[in-house]
Amino acid sequence: MAEPVMTFSHVTKHYGPAGGGTRAVDDLDLEIADGEFVSIVGPSGCGKSTLLKLVMGLEPLTGGSIEYRAEATSIQAMTGMVFQQPLLLPWHTVLDNVLVPSALQGRARKRADTGHARTLLGMLGLTDFADRYPYQLSGGMQQRVGIARALLHDPRILLMDEPFGALDAMTRDQLTMDLLDLWERDRKTVLFITHSISEAVLLSDRVVVMTPRPGRIAEIVDIDVRRPRTLDMVNTPEFGRIAGHIRQLLDDTERVPA
């Protein structure tokens, strides 16, 4: 495995008073390599989204540590975040929404930022929509704008919290392939949260299967499916074997008491 860009060591997160609160994540160890695509699957409430909050520093750790390869001044500079909902500003155009991170950093709009934003929109099939407003876009197009916004400052790590969960099946498939194409271009490190086993297998190098609360790692599954990948691969015996194994792991963890 390549050099780790992110290392979780005995990561623990409890909510509420010590001894009587909720254990969201418990003693989790994980290394994510530079350029690796890692998905996390597990039942609702197992701490998947909590992990992303811990990575971003939005929640304090109860115990353990998360270490990053030092190549930026802050974790915010190293990471881009794509949320479950695109969270676009309705009074901004598509282009202005992509440029929001520059504004939040207090930077005056630069020609280079605008040019990069337009390039990202082109890569995501939104060239002709730069001057539209969010209400003029479909749900899938709005999520593409959210992805472009997360990529504006060229983060080394992309964090994605169930970004396609609210979309219809056809749009979800298309955005999955768009994401694969983007990842193949420069191999950013991606930490991807999903409830979809097939989505996780199609996208990932490894899939982390978590137990019900308190969230622990049940198994880390290597996805030995050749790249580049296509939607047709979901119908192959190899794909079915891996997806079936992950489904069985989830079924087994649901039956084992914490």
Description:
This protein is an alpha/beta fold and 258 residues long. The protein folds into two domains: 4-72 and 157-255, Rossmann fold, CATH 3.40.50; 85-155. It is built from nine helices and nine strands. It has a six-stranded mixed beta sheet, with helices on both faces. Strands 2-1-4 form a three-stranded antiparallel beta sheet, with helices on one face. The chain starts with a strand and ends with a helix.
List the topology elements.
Blueprint: E1 4-15, E2 22-33, E3 37-41, H1 48-56, E4 63-68, H2 75-78, E5 79-82, H3 94-98, H4 100-104, H5 111-123, H6 139-151, E6 157-161, H7 169-186, E7 189-193, H8 197-203, E8 206-210, E9 217-222, H9 237-255
Q: Termini separation (Å)?
A: 31 Å
* Low-pLDDT residue intervals, each spanning 5 or more residues: none
CATH class of the largest domain: Alpha Beta
Tell me the radius of gyration.
Answer: 19 Å
- One letter per element, helices H and strands E, the order comes to EEEHEHEHHHHEHEHEEH
Order the strands across the largest sheet as they lie in space. 5-6-7-3-8-9
Task: Please tally the β strands and state the result.
Answer: 9
**Number of helices in the DSSP assignment:** 9
- Percentage of residues in helical conformation: 25-40%
Total individual domains = 2
Reported for the largest beta sheet, the result is: 6 strands, mixed
CATH superfamily of the largest domain: P-loop containing nucleotide triphosphate hydrolases
GO molecular function: ATP binding; ATP hydrolysis activity
Protein name: Bicarbonate transport ATP-binding protein CmpD
Domain ABC transporter: 6-237
Keywords: ATP-binding, Hydrolase, Nucleotide-binding, Transport
